[in-house]
Amino acid sequence: SSNAMWGGRFAAGPDAIMEAINASIGFDQRMAAQDIAGSRAHAAMLAATGIVSDSDASAMRKGLLTVLSEIEAGRFEFSTALEDIHMNVEARLKALIGEPAGRLHTGRSRNDQVATDFKLWVRDQIDAAIEGIEALIAALLDQAEAGADWVMPGFTHLQTAQPVTWGHHMMAYVEMLGRDRSRFSDARARMNECPLGAAALAGTSFPIDREMTARELGFDRPAANSLDAVSDRDFALEFLSTASICAMHLSRFAEELVIWSSAQFRFVTLSDRFSTGSSIMPQKKNPDAAELIRAKIGRIFGANVALMTVMKGLPLAYSKDMQEDKEQVFDAADNLMLALAAMEGMVKDMTANRDNLAAAAGSGFSTATDLADWLVRALGMPFRDAHHVTGSLVALAESRGCDLPDLTLDDMKGVHGAITDDVFSVLGVQNSVASRMSYGGTAPDQVRAQIARWRERMA
Ligand code: ARG
Fold it and tell me: Which intervals hold domain Fumarate lyase N-terminal (predicted)?
């Protein structure tokens, strides 16, 4: 038999394969609450503008709440023949209230309906992402505060570069996540225009009030062009690209935690709650949560590429291709929220091994730059010459199998006669980090100032 919603011009129903490729109810049922909110706003507007009677509208609005409670209670039977959440809800409303249900679709189309539902859904996810980011920032601030002056090696090329503080390293991620948060809120502000009332593509001849439905659904205004309103998926793409950048940050941090928790580094101990064991090697404690967070960027950025590829080349306005938007965004959102929560849990629970960090901070000639800077300051040497002299001292220490502070003054004088005992004061790591007082530098006072600035910002 032909479709009850659109089957007027059809003699035969769809092939089973047609139904299978066409149906989205298997996934878009996740937008049930948004669909019903949109329909309830639309019904109220239809009554306020005199397009339907007050009694029809209140029957619709009441009936829609019943449908919602059935869905929430798991008592709703979704039908593949009814394709999607929009038609499933409307068909059930018809069964519940009869004729007035048939008036609900006046002055709208599934095209503006789905765009509205999906925007509402994505908007909620943006709010959830911002919450997850803020919780993770709070956990990082606590770590940074505890270890504002704990020294550790800073790396470039994953080779020891200069000592930094634990707090400074944690605060680097706070900066990244702060940008993620601001990207999500920018995206939210930009997307917050309501497509409802664009109808199929051209608008409608009914005297609808788009300001009213926009307001009702928490949008700032109605979208200004009906063709754009039904064919725009920028909001989903911005969500996915912002989520991708955020997941990339999480992936970098996760990679550091994997390295830091290894037996070779022992910079951090991850809690049992966020680790797993091996079924064969009894000694193992694996950083699986970190590894999975490291991997999540794969599917999140994959979703971004997938939807961008779906959208490219689509003529205006709606094409069914666009139905492929939801699963990508659903999956990316689910996994971003999970990754944020797992990272927050790991950061809260992890222990920085202060002594190991300090020991590592002093190895690998990490204060060679301080030595070169001292030659410049104390002896008035040009930096390039100081660099060369320091290089010779590093080579000497390396040949002795010791670190720079282990060289004697005579060793030093052998390389450059003007060096004095004072030089040893700059070779300690604590001294090294304390000296980096430039704005944004690793000196504990700078780090504490940044923590205070972020705490204020987050309040
Ligand atoms: N299930 C569809 C989607 O997700 C709803 C819009 C259908 N519109 C249409 N003209 N067939 O995109």
Answer: 8-302
- Give the active site residues: 157, 278
Closest ligand 1 atom number to CA of residue 118: 4
Nearest CA to ligand 1 atom 7: 110
Q: Which residues line ligand 1 (CB under 6 A)?
A: 24, 28, 84, 110-111, 114, 318, 320, 322-323
Neighbours of 309 (CB within 10 A): 10
Q: What is the pLDDT of residues 180-206, one digit of tens each?
A: 999 999 999 999 999 999 999 999 999
Contact 248, 297 (CB under 8 A): yes
CA of 230 to the centre of ligand 1 (A): 10
Query: Other CB atoms closer than 10 Å to residue 321's CB: what's the count?
Result: 12
ipTM of the complex: 0.96
Counting ligand 1 atoms within 8 A of each CB, the residue from 114, 116, 122, 319 with the most, and so the one to mutate, is 114
Structure tokens at 174: 């706070």
- What are the CA-CA distances from residue 133 to residues 30, 163, 180, 318, 456 (Å)? 23, 28, 8, 34, 16
DSSP label of 314 = P
**Angstrom distance (rounded) from CA 141 to CA 125:** 24
Mutating to test ligand 1, I would choose from 10, 111, 121 the residue with most ligand atoms within 8 A of its C-beta, which is 111
Could you tell me the pTM of the whole model? 0.94
pLDDT tens across 301-347, in order?
Answer: 999 999 999 999 999 999 999 999 999 999 999 999 999 999 999 99
Give buried/exposed letters for 240-252 (b at 16+ CB in 10 A, else e).
bbbbbbbbbbbbe
Kindly tell me the burial class for residue 135, based on how many C-beta atoms sit within 10 Å of its own C-beta (0-12, 13-18, 19 or more): middle
User: Helices marked H in 273-366 — which ranges?
Assistant: 288-311, 325-349, 354-362
